[in-house]
Amino acid sequence: MKLAFIFSATQVLLVALTVNAQTPPPTNYWAVEDARAREQLPLYTEIPAAQPQDLTPAERLPGRDNFKIWQRSHGDAGGRRYSALDQINRNNVTNLAVAWTYHSGDNGPQLECNPIIVRDIMITPTPGDCVVGVNAVNGRELWRFKPGARPAFRGLIYWPGSFAAPERVLFCAGNFLYALDPQTGRPISDFGQQGKATLPGSATAAPDIFKKVIVVAGFEKDAWGFDVVSGRQLWTFHTVPQPGEYGYDTWDKTEDYAANDWAGMAMDDVRGIAYLTTGGPKPNFNGVRHRGQNLFCNCLIALDALTGRRLWHFQEIRHDIWDLDMSAPPTLATIMRAGRRVDVVAATTKIGNTILLDRVTGQPIFPFRLRRAPTSTLPGEVTWPYQPDLELPEPFSKLVFTEDDLTDRTPEAHDFAWSRFKGMRTGWFQPVAEGQPTLLFGIDGGGEWTGACVDQKTGRLYVTANHIGWAITMFQDDDPPDAPHPTPGQKIFEANCAICHGKDRLGVGVTPPLRGLRHRMTDEQVTQQVRTGKNAMPANVQLSDADLKLLLDYLMVRDRPAPPVDARPERPKYSFAGYPRFYDQEHYPANKPPWGTLNCIDLNTGKLVWKVPLGEYPELTAAGIPKTGTENYGGAIVTAGGLLFVSGTRDNQLRAFDKMTGAELWSGKLPFAGSAAPATYQIHGRQYVVIPATGVQHLGTPRGDAWVSFALP
Questions:
Q1: Where are the alpha helices (DSSP H) in 328-421?
Q2: Are the beta carbons of 299 and 324 closer than 8 angstroms?
Q3: Are 617 and 595 in contact (CB under 8 A)?
Q4: Are 676 and 634 in contact (CB under 8 A)?
Q5: Distance from the CA of 56 to the CA of which of 196, 361, 463, 711 falls in 20 to 30 A?
Q6: Is 133 exposed, middle or buried (0-12, 13-18, 19+ CB in 10 A)?
Q7: For residue 267, how far is the Cα from the chain centroid?
Q8: Are 634 and 450 a contacting pair, CB within 8 Å?
């Protein structure tokens, strides 16, 4: 079933751009789009919602133990992160205390794995690239296994076994799928080759299981099915279609690394449907190499778990040139529509959308509105005519950064932010440009790989979000390397310009790069800007005319061998200047708070029920500033006790919120920042909440090696 509108790239008219008066562009890959032609298209179009009578009725969920176990990362096969346990509840959560703390005693990168609990053993990777079994009552390590690569980076799963095969815990490490005995940590000898099966590529997210097929999502591309008993590979689904496959003609040139399921997956383990969410095409921000719609990038895909056959797909962003991956694992839910319960799948996205679809047909629950998108000024780029502009479910974040968003924390912070903001491009789905920063929300959230949780009883979805600006700049990347010995112009640059533009000329923070400058500015324009200043760049009147000429010779690549003028490739070659966050002069986000939020969306109505700040900067709170929220990478869980537990913030706290109102009810201090969603479980009648606290890599917080479990006294 094809649910996305298809527009041919030839429908977007191009006009020629003369790059050099003496050297006409060799192909239309050096053309620039005609904005006037785009404006003739209708402003909106939409994919209609499914009729209520056509929606799939809810199935019963056998074998779930009433959501009281936690044997797969994200809670269950459907990734709901919901627990029916209610011993810890709104009335007593303030009494929570540390039950035990486990230290793995090794070090390395921070973890992003939600641990699992098999009977009374917590199983988790460690920062030192081991997998450990830990007594979930007292925190004592029981066993340890070290594979040859980083294991279970974003998850693992338990399979209870069958009459013919013993139970096992399965996870990916590098290019292998491992199976271990959960009691001892020893490899299952008859799985694959002595406990590990070879993958066609690398994988990091938690796999999922239907009957005896384990589905693995590839970190770089594709998905695979394996026999959970033997480790034999059964099928491959190409997320980047190959010649002759559906979707291949949506690329003018395919990429080897694209449409990767790096965030995770979910499984309808009654119907045998595997759901994948995919990233955008690579390289990021540069669509010149791969024009077209680019299936199956930025998609929610449904596969038959037994055969790998595509059942349907739904694409959020077409021809993604903003690194706006569908970045969260899918979440299964059951909601009420027209008086009956129906089964749906949801995926939260970087731009704050919740893609909500019928689980079997892939049809949207609410109309999916698309809006006419702007064209690119970048030679060679062909943007997609329409991009998503949803009304329902209501977005929980936004993409466009406006002047009204600039910080008012202090007058000095506002002035600093304004001096930089006025030199940036902004706008809804504004394509990146050459040599000038494009400022957007969403590059690392709204919703991130941490994903959402959903209340199985109410159909309410809870998702954490980030809300800070990112400034992205492109440049033509054909400058030759610097001379073996610095030229006079290079020395002048390093003495006067490198502090802002970087010794490598890639820019520092939101300062634009100077690589490829000769393609976008003349000597006269550079001289004017150096002498008079512009935006945040101060005027430089001290530099002598002779030194300025030497500087220009360096920046314009006249003081060292350069590529010949007519040596132009078929397609322009671009790079981008990294991922600078838009911060003020004191290194706080340069937009108004909240900078991090916890959000509640009623999937039954599509309405945003509440939004509250998540996390705080204690020094700002002490100064009387209301709680701002912080960037966060952890994700929440929801329980029948009326609670949400969530961490992942800069302030090293695990928090409990009232799931109905968003009120913060309790917080507990962690030794390091919580680095994944918590898990909850019950042993001998006592409920625990455990959280890995190893620091948050994306925030640069200190690394740790702790897991902290909380319980009532």
A1: 411-421
A2: no
A3: no
A4: yes
A5: 463
A6: buried
A7: 20
A8: yes
Radius of gyration of the chain (CA): 26
All domains in the chain, ordered by first residue? 52-399+442-468+589-711 (2.140.10.10), 477-576 (1.10.760.10)
Residue 518 neighbours by CB distance under 10 Å: 19
Contact 216, 223 (CB under 8 A): yes
Record the tokens describing residue 128, joined without a space: 């030192």
CA-based end-to-end distance of the chain? 54
Q: Which residues partner with 655 through β-bridges?
A: 646, 667
What single letter denotes the amino acid at residue 287? G
| Residue 630 to residue 592: CA distance in whole angstroms | 12
Which 8-state DSSP code applies to residue 505?
S
Nearest to 167 by CA among 232, 121, 115, 130: 121
- Backbone phi, psi, residue 14, to 5°: -120, 150
Closest CA to 297 of 246, 339, 260: 260
The size of the chain, in residues, is 713
From the first residue on, what is the mean pLDDT of each consecutive set of 10 residues in the chain (713 residues)?
A: 34 29 56 96 98 93 77 97 98 98 95 97 98 98 96 97 95 98 98 97 97 97 98 98 97 94 94 97 92 97 98 98 94 96 97 97 98 96 97 96 97 96 96 93 87 96 97 87 85 84 79 80 84 79 85 84 71 88 96 98 98 97 96 96 97 98 98 96 98 93 96 97
Q: In angstroms, rounded to a whole number, what is the distance separating the alpha carbons of residues 426 and 467?
A: 15
Sequence-ordered strand ranges (E) for 363-508: 368-372, 386-388, 438-441, 452-454, 460-466, 469-472, 474-476
Write out the DSSP string of 530-582: HHH-BTTBPP--SS-HHHHHHHHHHHTT-SS----TT---SS--EEE----B-
SS3 206: coil
- Torsional sign, CA 294, 220, 440, 674: positive
Q: Report the relative pairing of strands 596-602 and 460-466 from DSSP bridges.
A: antiparallel
The two three-digit tokens of residue 135, written as one number: 């007594």
pTM: 0.91
Pair 208, 266: CB distance under 8 Å: yes
